[in-house]
Amino acid sequence: AGFVVTASWPIQTEMANRTRALTSAALASSIWMVCKKRPATAKADWESAVLTDMHQRITQQLRDFWDAGIRGPDFVWAATGPALESFSQYPAVRKVEGGVMTIGEFLNQVRRFVVDFVVGRVLSQDNPDGASAAAEQLDDLTAYYLLHRHDFGFEPAPIGQVILYGQSCGLSDRTLLQTWDLLANSKTAVAESVEDEDAAEANEAESASPGGATVKLKAWHQRKDKNLGMEAPGGQAVPLIDRIHRLMQLWKAGQVAHVDEYLDTHGLRGQELFKRVLQAVLELSAAGSEERAVLESLSNHLGVKIARPISGTLPGM
């Protein structure tokens, strides 16, 4: 429309007990943006420059939003306004390979950057910014798992929020349920993926059920695929969370020799990112649970330093 975003604020505008919220997975906040007309002299710029500017522009904003207690999908959406300040400066953003970056493509980049920011704080409370760099190396499924586990645990999660998290990690809700077997339906069938909130609202009358459609994260012992941790769909690299869940199943079965063989075959003993994810999952587990006992045993076996138990929430939540 030829406008430049000059300022934005995430504002809590919705009541959790309003009529529409009782049968939907709507977000609790809106984004207010202040815009002005873009100068006629503005020129196009390259994708790399715009993304670099976006990263620099929103990093401090994300820290401020986090410190203010904004969490979950609302945290993802809160970054939209500041990020658009970078994108909207230019009449077009060019790709090196040719063509023009669409607003949808840009927002996908923004969402993944926000995911890496949050996952960085799950991976390390002592050095979250440094861990965000490590989060950028994570495979999509493991990043999604940590994001979902941190915010919802194993409780039912609204499908609308699952869709947003999945899209932020390059995954659809259907893929998470059927291809990766990471989620299970709570009460209703899989909701159709939507591209934006308007489409979601248009379909709510047809897809909503009392309390809203929900799904749950599968626990390590509920993932029954015999090839778990050995191969991935479509010849993709095996996600770290799949490797951890396979190791947990082997350890629980008392197959220590197979644990060692698996660790050595896949070069996991010296892989720092693997150890970070293992530690993060351990810290998210409930004290006294079987999951925690298995993870602590695995960590001790690997010689990974075990941090003090935490409740599964981060400071300020």
Can you describe this structure in just a few lines?
The protein is mainly α and 317 residues long.
Description:
- By secondary structure, this protein is mainly α.
- The protein folds into three domains: 1-131, no CATH class; 139-218, no CATH class; 220-302, no CATH class.
- The protein has helices at 47-67, 72-78, 80-87, 103-123, 128-135, 140-152, 159-168, 173-179, 197-207, 240-252, 256-265, 272-284, 290-302, and strands spanning 3-12, 29-37, 45-46, 93-94, 157-158, 183-185, 214-217.
- Strands 5-7-6 form a three-stranded antiparallel beta sheet. It has a two-stranded antiparallel ribbon with strand order 1-2.
- Helix 1 (47-67) packs antiparallel against helix 3 and helix 10 packs across helix 13.
- Mean pLDDT is 82; it is low at 16-27, 188-210 and 306-317.
How are the SSEs placed, and which strands pair?
Blueprint: E1 3-12, E2 29-37, E3 45-46, H1 47-67, H2 72-78, H3 80-87, E4 93-94, H4 103-123, H5 128-135, H6 140-152, E5 157-158, H7 159-168, H8 173-179, E6 183-185, H9 197-207, E7 214-217, H10 240-252, H11 256-265, H12 272-284, H13 290-302
Parallel strand pairs: 3-4
Antiparallel strand pairs: 1-2, 5-7, 6-7
Helix pairs in contact: 1-3, 1-4, 3-4, 4-5, 4-6, 6-12, 10-13, 12-13
Q: What is the overall silhouette?
A: elongated
What's the structural domain tally?
A: 3
Task: Count all strands and give the number.
Answer: 7
User: Which runs of at least 5 residues are low in confidence (pLDDT < 50)?
Assistant: 16-27, 188-210, 306-317
Round the Cα radius of gyration to an integer and report it: 21 Å
Helix/strand/pairing class, anyone? mainly alpha
Q: How far apart are the first and last residues' alpha carbons, in Å?
A: 38 Å
Order of helix and strand elements from N to C terminus: EEEHHHEHHHEHHEHEHHHH
β-strand amount: 5-15%
Helix content: 40-55%
Count the DSSP helices.
13
Strand order of the largest sheet: 5-7-6
What's the main sheet like? Answer: 3 strands, antiparallel
Mean pLDDT: 82
